[in-house]
Design a protein that fits this description.
Blueprint (H helix, E strand, L loop, with lengths): L6 E3 L2 E3 L6 E5 L6 E6 L3 H20 L2 H17 L1 H12 L3 H18 L2 H4 L3 E7 L2 E9 L2 E5 L7 H12 L3 E5 L6 H13 L6 E3 L4 H9 L3 E7 L2 H13 L3 E5 L4 E5 L5 H13 L9 E7 L3 H13 L19 H16 L3 E4 L18 E4 L6 H4 L6 E7 L2 H9 L3 E2 L1 E5 L3 H10 L4 E4 L15 E2 L2 E2 L6 H7 L1 E9 L1
Parallel strand pairs: 7-8, 7-10, 8-9, 10-11, 12-13, 12-18, 13-16, 15-16, 18-19
Antiparallel strand pairs: 1-2, 3-4, 5-6, 6-22, 11-21, 14-15, 17-20
Helix pairs in contact: 1-8, 2-4, 2-7, 3-4, 3-7, 4-6, 10-11
Bound molecules: nicotinamide-adenine-dinucleotide (NAD).
């Protein structure tokens, strides 16, 4: 019988209060891997109470002792590296190498958390008035939570939990019900790590559990990563309930290519950006803005290479592109391609109705390239979140910037060029939080904040880096006269 997943609360695996469940489906084989409970307010409340109970002692555990858990966690994650990658492939559909990359990035966040003792330092000024000294010191705040998406089921929760707990807070993760298994395995590893009961908690479920997290008075702050419509809801709801919130939303990422770019390297980078993880990265390149004479060679080479990509089951090491997350996602992506064509885009590579031998029921969309796209078309404006690349041809650099800055999103943008002047202008003028220069996926590493502007981010302190230490701590001011 397929297992029903449990929540991890107060150091124990417990059944969710609700008997409602969502099947977790391998999107390539269609096998039901497990059933994810639709946890309720009562489950969230139990997790909050466990996290609150654990907080006072955890907070006063010396920071150098808290950090030791990160070193041990890193070792445990390295030991289970391949198991974690396999789990990501099975529930998400990406390739094994992409999953390995995800696990590696996740471990880098644990490395970062080990630097928290130096980043948590406060500051002091003597004699701000005669005989009076002033100090700012950072303190943890209590119980934090994260609501995370399906596309990086291991890495995204790791952007938050290690830093939050090393800062002295206790934590709750509410992962996507489509991909809860990586978090279940991660919590099995955390269980082995032997943190005090209640420091880390896992509540599985969907919207109802999310709402309970956003509204619970015992949670002081929420980190959200997911689509823009939900990010807006999370930002507003958390603010209404007096919480700190950082909400990373959806994206529409543009890649501009100048005629002076190194075409070979450019195409290789765009391929990885647009079709890596089957286009289901928030940093995926979605629209190529080809400037002047860059257009023709770029278009032809993209089609040549994209049509040669081996699409298949991620567990097969020869697969270069896996599935999208679900049949529902496949249908949405195909509908969006059809809408683009109806608006005048020309499908020079059409990935609809894909069939992969041996996985006939799998949720596959092959690489798709739409030419003759204009900035007004839906395929140029809306997030597709699939392996679909649109090409817009513009006469010059300024027109490229204009097209990019029209977007309501501002997650990432890249420029391919050999001109330093163009690169600087691009970085200076483009309204996006992550900029790539001759880099197709401008993914911030763990010690830098993950950028995002406009409708791609709601909040002020970003995930990762020093921003995350700011988010997970408060600055208390002490003014002393003796
Ligand atoms: P999603 O918004 O559907 O779900 C994200 C999380 O929110 C899940 O845990 C889900 O259960 C919960 N949720 C869904 N509907 C909700 C509601 N109405 N109220 C409260 N919670 C709700 O996103 P997804 O489909 O899992 O992930 C894909 C999206 O995430 C894409 O838009 C992608 O661009 C975005 N993303 C952004 C970043 C970033 O850093 N900006 C990173 C990864 C993914």
């Amino acid at each position: 019988m397929t297992r029903i997943l449990k929540n991890y609360i107060g150091g124990a695996w417990v059944e969710a209060a609700s008997s409602a469940q969502t099947p977790v489906i391998n999107p390539a084989t269609c096998e039901v891997l497990a059933h994810c409970p639709d946890s309720t307010r009562a489950d969230v409340d139990a997790a909050v109470r466990a996290a609150q109970a654990a907080y006072p002692e955890w907070r006063s555990t010396p920071i150098l002792s808290r950090v030791q858990y990160m070193y041990r966690l890193k070792a445990l994650l390295e030991d289970r590296f391949e198991d974690l990658a396999k789990c990501v492939v099975e529930e998400n559909g990406k390739t094994r190498d992409e999953a390995r990359g995800e696990v590696r990035r996740g471990i880098e966040s644990v490395d970062f958390a080990a630097t928290v003792p130096s980043l948590m330092r406060g500051y002091k000024v003597e004699d701000i008035s005669s005989g009076i000294d002033e100090t700012a010191e950072r303190q943890p705040l209590g119980v934090f939570a994260a609501i995370t998406p399906f596309n990086f089921p291991l890495m995204v929760p790791l952007w938050f939990l290690p830093t939050a707990i090393t800062c002295g807070n206790t934590y709750i993760i509410k992962p996507s019900p489509q991909t809860p298994l990586s978090m279940v395995l991660f919590f099995e590893i955390l269980d082995e790590l032997g943190l005090p009961e209640g420091v880390v908690n896992l509540v599985l479920g969907g919207k109802e559990a999310s709402i309970a997290v956003m509204e619970h008075p015992g949670i002081v702050g929420v980190s959200f990563v997911g689509s823009t419509p939900v990010a807006k809801i999370v930002y507003e709801t958390c603010a209404r309930h007096g919480k700190r919130v950082q909400a990373q939303g959806g994206a529409k990422n543009y890649i501009a290519v100048m005629p002076d770019a190194d075409m070979n390297a450019t195409v290789a980078n765009i391929m990885g950006s647009a079709f890596g993880c089957a286009g289901q990265r928030c940093l995926a390149g979605s629209v190529v803005v080809a400037v002047g004479d860059a257009y023709e060679p770029l278009r032809d080479e993209l089609v040549r290479r994209a049509s040669a990509l081996r699409v298949g089951y991620g567990m097969d090491e020869t697969t270069q592109m896996g599935t999208v997350i679900s049949d529902e996602a496949r249908e949405r992506i195909e509908r969006m391609i059809s809408a683009g064509i109806a608006e005048g885009a020309e499908p020079i590579l059409d990935g609809r109705d894909a069939k992969v031998e041996g996985y006939e029921q799998g949720s596959f969309v092959r690489p798709t390239i739409l030419d003759k796209v204009t900035p007004e078309m839906s395929v140029a404006r809306d997030e597709i979140f699939g392996p679909v690349l649109s090409i817009i041809h513009v006469p010059d650099f300024d027109s490229a910037i204009e097209v990019i800055n029209k977007s309501r999103y501002g997650n990432a943008a890249s420029l391919f060029t050999t001109s330093g002047k163009a690169a600087r202008e691009f970085k200076y003028r483009v309204q996006a939080g992550n900029i790539g220069i001759n880099v197709g996926v401008a993914a911030a590493t763990a010690s830098f904040p993950f950028g995002g502007q406009k409708e791609s981010f709601f909040g002020d302190l970003h995930g990762q880096g020093l921003d995350s230490v700011e988010f997970f701590t408060d600055k208390k001011i002490l003014i002393e006269r003796w």
